[in-house]
Write a structure and sequence with these properties.
The complex is a heterotrimer.
Chain A (H helix, E strand, L loop, with lengths): L14 H43 L7 E7 L15 H12 L6 H8 L6 H11 L7 E7 L2 H7 L16 H12 L3 E2 L5 H4 L12 H32 L4 H13 L4 H15 L7 H25 L3 H9 L4 H30 L2 H5 L20 H10 L4 H31 L4
Chain B lengths: L1 H30 L7 H38 L2 H4 L4 H15 L9 H39 L6 H41 L2 H6 L3 E2 L14 E2 L2 H32 L2 H16 L2 H23 L8 H26 L2 H9 L4 H30 L2 H6 L17 H9 L8 H35 L1
Antiparallel strand pairs in B: 1-2
Chain C lengths: L1 H13 L7 E12 L2 E12 L3 E5 L6 H8 L9 E9 L2 E2 L7 H7 E4 L10 H12 L5 H14 L3 H4 L12 H13 L5 E5 L7 H14 L4 E5 L3 H7 L2 E6 L2 E7 H6 L4 H7 L5
Classes of the chains: A mainly alpha, B mainly alpha, C alpha/beta.
Protein name (chain A): Phosphate transport system permease protein PstA
Family (chain A): Belongs to the binding-protein-dependent transport system permease family. CysTW subfamily.
Keywords (chain A): Cell membrane, Membrane, Transmembrane, Transmembrane helix, Transport
């Protein structure tokens, strides 16, 4: 082991060395393969997620409708007060007319099951809006009830044995006569966007949830945007470096990682219990979501402020501007694109948030959209939760469709953020 | 009504701005060099002081009006009704009174309730008008005072900037207040709970059956609040999630940082980030719709019976959600290892795999561990996936094929629907919430500290 | 400093360093980074058991050439090398050549000491471990000790072999990196400005070490210090703007350069 020994030459071409090298290269390829498999797995899972949503959800974007001729008999519909009329009778008369060959009352009941339960309401709304049709006949496209809707869309397989289907042979036969007469159509389901929630899947829509989510985001934006920017400017530009501001900083970073349901508990205990604000109201939901978004807002705004080079500040200070003027006139305008991008991403997160809203009661069953921020409302994600919990088969595709709508909004918001970033981003 | 009030305050504040600026312009014309601040600052100063106090007043008023009127209403009810009534009974009275007042009558109200409803409407009206009058008076007074103080030498800019400072500091304090609010509200309700159920039963009891009767007519269990099975269920699902997410996320990061070219990275990274942007309620539905049936079917083929809400389905889907966290934090950690480490290893004749496993991973370990801790905190606090896909009954088991429940599931099921704050069922949710908050907070503080220290090391 | 000057004088007295056989040989080497050419037709021989210094102003391509000698440029995606470089008359850019073996035979020491965040022992044992050079644990201990001794570090660290290598001083870290390179018994050691991050005393220690290593290894050193090139090398190659300006025995290069650019550079007119 003396210092003078020459390095013993290693025989790189010996069989042992060759084998070692082979093994090492194999390990290298293996690691590479694991990485590739992992990435493909992750992307594949995302693909399965989207594919299963599209596969179940696409049928909810069309709705089976049946053209039915109704007669607004003055006997059933008093012309002086059409809204109080007996529209159930109008509908059952129409069903009898639709199937003149049926005289068995039981069979007739089965036949009326083809039309949605809400048919009477639809006729009432039409007649109230057009009182001139009283005493006349008119044709309306009425949604088919859920089992027939599923049957028509092929979700229920007609070739299955009868006992394994939710629709009997007799019901299929009735429906097929309507198909043969060309009364069945499947137009685009505008009801999905313009109807509020309903217990009947064929009538349920997202109008209430979309309006509710809009109010939620409005409140969230109005609170978290100004407060977040003000706090960020203070912490980034004015705050002295001491223990207290350190504490504030640690606090904000941790707040960003607090589970969302804890914010729901806070909202329930403070806003509803202590301040007595109404349950299920977008105001409370918005307050909770803005508390959740606040840390994100502050972090994003500080990052944009930090990216403005000090030379701009120095230049403005150098010509005698006050520190406030420097920030209001120079730094903030330059940072605005970054702040807006961050805000949109924060709001997109808030739009998808569900758990805290459940705790403050935003999963109520509501058949009309909220009229303001103090009225009970649902939101898109809580509506998804409600529908996912509903037993009717038709709600499965509605849930997937609602998710696709929610994802659509999220994609739009994120695309907007990316566009803003690319359009206005400046490199210093 | 309130909307018009906000509008009125805004208009007053605009008036203050324009008149303030005009007056100040006259100073400039008269005194020239003797004016301290530019006219615009005089205007801004006046506008801020006219608008802000009135606005804050209205907001506080709105916040407290409801609960004060409720108190007064309850106090005004005849003693025969309120004597000895529970808090939930009282809140039922209140909602009945409000329903009657707004005209939603389901059955003929009792005379006491009708009278109270009338009082409620009257008080509501009085409170609203009082708010309008007080707010406008405050705004007008502020307008008068600021006008009176306006002179050529008045330091309006300093005044305005100081006001801005106060607003900014209050905003920064708001973030701290949120944390304090969380701690106080959770602790307060948890203490109420521990008065009813001793802490040792909660922390060490093995039986969790919180669905007790709130009203006499309900059929329910006797109530047992041993939270151990809830905690173990949470750990089981979080562990499954990490077992799915850590290998996939870590290997993906390794591939993206060390093997992939820029183009591949540029395409794959945003796709992985989509996984992080999907709302959790979507994952929950995915678990119920696709994953749980698939797992059951697979189990059926193998002849194993698997619970429809197995921990495996919930944990697996949660794992998918966490993949992007692990991969992006590991990505950051691997990239933070200086290039000189790679060069040093390659120059020794190491292969990429050897460089990664023997040099880069050990060097990046603190960052990766920090990322895994953050992901664990996410998994423990995640709610929607487990609410939809995991079970409701607390089973003490380590078998991933059985259904278990978690802390967050219990919080949601205990608090969903109408709640009163005087029974252990509701309060236990806050005790669980406190445990959840403390555990995730510890994990986050630890993780952020590790990550930060690690970053400093290489900067 | 005296001692070093003596070493340089000694080198000069030995004379005729070009008589040594060429261990590595570059022929018309061109290097491109993307569309930018960094080296133009460089042909240079590296003599066995000699120190060859590559000098020139920054950005002249000397480091690029050095990195070609053990194919470290392969780790840069956009880098492309043409021409021929041989090690013992074998083309190292031949696809049949195993880059792992090549880098074990041609070791490298970097500008900034880059010990791995492991213990001193593990740093030195890294190469023998990955290449499977030690069959028994005792062998590995022996290799680590010999390498540290050759790097002149053993006596300073023998009591703390299992403490982190990053805890050493800058000069010790650089010698640790040299020990790490030696541990796989390379034939050639490439050094990329190995002293530029060190203080003068540590620099002197490393230069001394380089002179000792010359006995067993072929060394190529990139340096921006004329004095260092004069002190440690037997042959010197001068690069400028990606071209090899001239090449020859060190004493001749520093006393009587052929090219005007070399003269200007050595006398400090540019660079």
């Amino acid at each position: 082991m003396s210092e003078t020994t020459a390095p013993k030459p290693f025989d790189w071409s010996s069989p042992k060395a060759t084998a070692t090298r082979k093994r090492r290269y194999a390990a290298d390829r293996r690691l590479r393969l694991y990485g590739l498999i992992s990435i493909l797995t992750a992307i594949g899972l995302l693909g399965v997620l989207i594919a299963s949503l599209v596969a179940t959800g696409h049928t909810a974007f069309v709705q089976t409708k049946i053209a039915v001729e109704f007669t607004a008999d003055p006997e059933n519909v008093p012309p002086d007060d059409p809204a109080s009329g007996n529209f159930r009778a109008v509908v059952s008369n129409a069903v009898q007319q639709l199937f003149p060959e049926i005289d068995d009352p039981r069979e007739l009941r089965t036949a009326s099951g083809i039309l949605s339960n809400g048919a009477a309401n639809i006729v009432r709304d039409y007649v109230t809006a057009h009182p001139e049709v009283i005493g006349q006949s008119f044709t309306l496209n009425v949604p088919a009830s859920d089992p027939y809707d599923q049957l028509n869309k092929g979700v229920i397989d007609r070739s299955l044995p009868e006992e394994r289907r939710r629709v009997s042979n007799e019901e299929i036969a009735l429906f097929e006569t309507l198909e043969d007469r060309g009364l069945v159509s499947t137009p685009f389901n505008w009801g999905l966007f313009f109807n509020a929630d309903s217990r009947f899947p064929e009538l349920a829509g997202l109008a209430g949830a979309i309006v509710g989510s809009f109010y939620l985001l409005l409140v969230t934006f109005l609170i978290s945007f100004p407060v977040g920017i003000a706090a960020a400017i203070y912490l980034e530009e004015f705050a002295p470096k001491n223990r207290w501001t350190d504490l504030v900083e640690v606090n904000i970073n941790n707040l960003a990682a607090v589970p969302s349901i804890v914010f729901g508990l806070l909202g329930l205990a403070v806003f509803i219990q202590v301040f007595g604000l109404p349950r299920s109201a977008p105001l409370v939901g918005g307050l909770v979501l803005s508390l959740m978004t606040l840390p994100t807002m502050i972090i994003v705004t500080r990052a944009s402020l930090k990216s403005i080079p000090p030379s701009i500040r120095e230049a403005a200070l150098g010509i005698g501007a006050s520190k406030h003027e420097v920030i209001l006139h120079h730094v903030l305008p330059l940072a605005i694109p970054g702040i807006l991008t961050g805000t949109i991403i924060g709001l997109a997160q808030a739009l998808g948030e569900t758990a805290p809203l459940l705790l403050i009661g935003m999963n109520a069953f509501l058949t009309s959209p909220p009229g303001g921020i103090m009225e009970p409302a649902t939101a898109l994600p809580t509506q998804i939760f409600i529908w996912a919990d509903s037993p009717e088969r038709g709600f499965v595709s509605r849930t997937s469709a609602a998710i696709l709508v929610l994802l659509g909004f999220l994609i739009f918001m994120n695309a907007l953020a990316i566009y803003l970033r690319q359009r206005f981003e400046r490199r210093w | 009504m309130t909307g018009y009030l906000f509008l009125a305050i805004l208009v007053l504040s605009l008036i203050a701005f324009y008149t303030g600026r005009r007056t100040a312009s006259q100073f400039v014309a008269a005194h020239r060099n003797d004016v301290h601040s530019r006219p615009i600052y005089h205007g801004a100063f006046a506008a801020v002081w006219v608008g802000l106090p009135a606005l804050v007043l209205v907001l506080l008023w709105l916040l407290f009006q409801g609960s004060i009127i409720d108190r007064l209403l309850l106090a005004s009810l005849p003693a025969s009704l309120t004597e000895g009534a529970s808090a939930s009974r009282l809140s039922l009275y209140l909602s009945e009174i409000k329903n009657v007042a707004s005209g939603r009558i389901f059955s003929e109200p009792s005379p006491e309730v009708s009278a109270a409803a009338e009082r409620y409407q009257r008080w509501q009206m009085i409170a609203q008008w009082a708010m309008v009058v007080v707010a406008l008076a405050v705004a007008a007074l502020a307008l008068y005072i600021t006008r009176a103080r306006m002179t050529a030498r008045f330091r309006a800019r300093q005044g305005f900037e100081r006001t801005l400072d106060i607003v900014m500091i209050l905003s920064a304090v708001a973030a701290v207040l949120v944390t304090i609010g969380i701690i106080i509200s959770l602790t307060y309700e948890a203490i109420q709970f521990f008065r009813l159920v001793p802490p040792h039963e909660f922390f060490f009891g093995l039986n969790w059956e919180p669905q007790i009767a709130i009203r006499e007519d309900q059929v329910a269990g006797t109530g047992a609040f041993g939270a151990v099975p809830v905690f173990t269920g949470t750990l089981l699902i979080a562990t499954i999630a990490l077992l799915v997410a850590v290998p996939i996320g870590l290997f993906s990061a390794i591939y993206l940082v060390e093997f992939a070219n820029d183009r591949f990275r540029g395409i794959v990274k945003p796709i992985l980030e989509i996984l992080a942007g999907v709302p959790t309620v979507v994952y929950g539905f995915f678990a119920v719709l696709t994953v749980a049936p698939a797992i059951r079917q697979a189990g059926g083929l193998l002849g194993i019976s698997i619970s429809p809400n197995s921990a495996l389905a919930a944990g697996g889907v949660m794992g998918i959600m966490i993949i992007p966290f692990i991969s992006s934090l590991s990505d950051d950690a691997l990239r933070a290892v200086p290039q000189s480490m790679r060069d040093g290893s390659f120059a020794m004749g190491a292969t990429r795999a050897e460089t990664i496993t023997r040099v880069l991973l050990p060097a990046a370990l603190p960052g990766i561990v920090g990322g895994i801790l953050l992901a664990a905190s996410r998994a423990i606090g995640e709610t929607m996936i487990v609410v939809m896909a995991a079970g409701l009954t607390a089973t003490l088991t380590a078998n991933p094929l059985e259904g278990v429940t978690t802390v967050t599931v219990q919080i949601v099921t205990l608090l969903i629907g109408d709640t009163a704050f005087d029974n252990p069922k509701t309060l236990s949710a806050f005790a669980l919430g406190l445990v959840l908050f403390v555990v995730t907070l510890c994990l986050n503080v630890l993780a952020l500290r590790i990550v930060r220290r690690y970053r400093e090391k290489y900067e | 400093m005296n001692m070093l000057t003596d070493a340089a004088v000694e080198t000069a007295l030995e004379g005729a360093p070009e008589s040594k056989a060429a261990k590595m040989r570059g022929e018309k080497v061109n290097v491109f980074y993307g569309g930018k050419q960094a080296l133009f037709d460089v042909s240079l021989d590296v003599g066995e058991n000699q120190v060859t210094a590559l000098i020139g102003p920054s950005g002249c391509g000397k480091s690029t050439f050095l990195r070609c000698l053990n194919r470290m440029n392969d780790t840069i995606d956009i880098a492309r090398v043409t021409g021929k470089i041989t090690l013992d008359d074998e083309d190292i850019y031949n696809p049949r050549i195993d880059v792992v073996e090549l880098r074990a035979r041609v070791g490298m020491v970097f500008q900034k000491p880059n010990p791995f965040p492991k213990s001193i022992y593990e740093n030195v044992a890294y190469g023998p471990r990955i290449h499977g050079l030690a069959s028994a644990k005792g062998d590995l201990d022996g290799i680590v000790e010999t390498s540290l001794q050759k790097a002149g570090l053993f006596n300073e660290v023998k009591d703390r072999l299992h403490e982190p290598g990053t805890g050493l001083s800058g000069g010790q870290q650089q010698r640790l990196c040299i020990a790490r390179a030696i541990a796989v018994s390379p034939e050639v050691i490439l050094m990329d400005e190995p002293c530029s991050a060190l203080d003068p005393i540590a620099t002197a220690r490393v230069e001394e070490l380089i002179d000792e290593l010359r006995e067993n290894y072929t060394i190529v050193i990139v340096t921006h210090s004329m004095q260092q090139a004069a002190r440690v090398s037997q042959r010197t190659a001068m690069f400028h703007l990606g071209n090899l300006v001239e090449e020859g025995p060190t004493d001749k290069m520093f006393t009587n350069p052929e090219d005007k650019r070399t003269q200007d550079y050595i006398t400090g007119r540019f660079g």
